[in-house]
Amino acid sequence: MTDKTPDKTATTENVSETRAAPTMALGRIVLVRVHPDTNNGADECPAVVCRVWSADMVNLRVLHDSNAIDWWTSVPVYRDRDAVPKDAPERVAYWGF
Q1: pLDDT of residue 6
Q2: Cα–Cα distance between 7 and 59 in angstroms, integer?
């Protein structure tokens, strides 16, 4: 008999049990929340992974839609924006799928 249940493997504890996150690696793109004043009015922008500490902790180069340049260190990564806890630190990243 074939098991038709969804794959419940995940690469991090922050990732949904029903959808595996991509493998974290140098150069991957994630999304981050930012203040709209630093990002041409938008509240999120892409960031490039510059250092991988673990499957859910990275350093990032934040790519604002402006002349702002940020380096963020030791940033937790979540499955998506909805998975970010209300009490999460100000600087968090999430997959954009």
Answers
A1: 44
A2: 29
Bridge partners for 63 per DSSP: 69
How far is residue 73's CA from residue 89's CA, in Å, rounded to a whole number? 12
CB 22 within 8 A of CB 10: no
- What's the 3-state SS for 9-68? CCCCCCCCCCCCCCCCCCCCEEEEECCHHHCCCCCEEEEEEEEEEECCEEEEEEECCCCC
Give the chain's residues under pLDDT 50: 1-10, 16
* Cα-based distances in Å from 7 to 3, 21, 80, 94, 97: 10, 12, 18, 20, 17
For the chain, domain boundaries:
24-73
